[in-house]
């Protein structure tokens, strides 16, 4: 007798179902559906998402909801793959003493050195023999500013450069008798200290400044001692790559580079207990995790950022599962170094400086939370018998094995949203598996932070789609340099801009970002997470711990659908002589639906008994 | 008749001096040459389209005496300015220049 069975896979970010008609051990798949997981994986909140997915799949299959005779869910362990970031360096520039930004159209070129003087004081306070940098507020019209400067210049006052608040550097420059560098669009011009020694530098179009971005250039300009040069080095560093900049020397001003105490991690491993400071950077943290020999738990130093963050996660999971705080453990960590653009304290034109930090993805879990509760709640709500299936890894392997051209022994790499998992099955059917922190969500976080997008949604779009740059009304350049032509003109909001090429629309990115930069950040984020974790996960499941002993790896999971992640992983694994490819579950589903498919097949086998 | 290199600014008879000067300043700040022609009394879109046909750079600006302006491109279908601003100012000139240079537009009124 035939009956309809549903397999349900609750993941960190998506819930997938597969519907099949099972008859005497013969399985005929009818439909599948994917939806966002509701609540934390493995908690009762998942029920509404499951219900929705089942309804949608039943609709697709053209059967009624009540035809489903049995539901099997995966043994989902409640896990939060959470992320945090800590800045560990901070450049403090008190008594703001630098302006380094890239207005589109600065005026003139060259380097000017002099004392800062307000435009209104040119007539009364300018002395002969002293060079001046003129400070021009927004209320001064460009004609007036040029007239005043010319008048002073004709009187014999030395004018070395100018700083303007409005975007009229070129306009002023074109009307001057003396040719000087002018930096414009300095938003907070009222913060510029007057009567101080300063330097203005503007490079030719397509070039970058050379003197002010070099600590020894600054030392030359301001006559600094070696000690003072060391102190002002962060200023020079913050100006590297700019086309124009201003540095003002405020003798009582201080430039300090602080190392923030981000705290220490206490790693409880199977072999040993190791402490490591966040400040030591990601590489050292990852090495320590390896030395600890498989994490049992991780704690953060009390009263520090990292301590607060890890305890916050425990608290959150404890509250949402109703499990005691003490039963929540951290099973894995992935640390990566990040460069985060941070607003410079005391900036005058919205400048950013690149600060170093560490991003952590952690796998917080509770062992004692039976998924039975989810199953019971589901059964109560739907009135259909629900049972909990076997180990997730085994189900994933079973699903992956429906890919044409695969057989046991098999190794799979499951790249999801919250975690990267690997599992291996021997010829005899024994499986070994591992779950690691850090996957799709972490990539999104890195992109968001490193491009300073301040929008998870936009970062997600950057992650999932290739880029283009609109070059004219009718054509755009793609990442690989090829051109794409459009029948209709591109709308003004994307003209000349770097855009995310979504299927149906173009999403413009902030003007300051170049296509190369966005692409580099996107690809490096994917590498740092997925390539790193692929190697870690595979090393764990190889009995010899040497991944060269693997020959084939099959990739499954949502991130295996990405337009470049599988290629990156394939390329990296190729270096170890491993052939990697992404699954095609049931010959139709691609890398998706492996676990749900495996669950259905496991029921079918039992039916045959 | 395409003679001078630059963006033609075709203004309706009686357009205010200040509006024009602001547009010129925007063009100058962006470093794109321009020239001014005073036109007859007519619709600003028509002026813009005509300016584009006179333009060796394919882009023209029409300015109306009410202070509105239309930035037109010769390659676009007739009857549709690419950018229209009911109250022109310096961004009008800058954006016309940026349309020639292939750069992102400045946010102004009406963009």
TrEMBL record, chain A:
One Pfam family linked to the record: DDR
Signal peptide: none
UniProt xrefs under NCBIfam families: reactive_PduG (TIGR04491)
Naturally occurring in which organism (per UniProt): Aneurinibacillus migulanus
Residue intervals of the Diol dehydratase reactivase ATPase-like domain: 276-602
Name listed for the protein in its UniProt record: Diol dehydratase reactivase alpha subunit
Taxonomic superkingdom: Bacteria
Residues of the DD-reactivating factor swiveling domain: 93-255
Family matches, as InterPro entries: ATPase_NBD, DDR_dom, DDR_swiveling, DDRA, DDRA_swiveling_dom_sf, NA-bd_OB-fold
Automatic annotation (TrEMBL), chain B:
Superkingdom classification of source: Bacteria
Name of one Pfam family that matches: Dehydratase_MU
Protein name: Dehydratase medium subunit
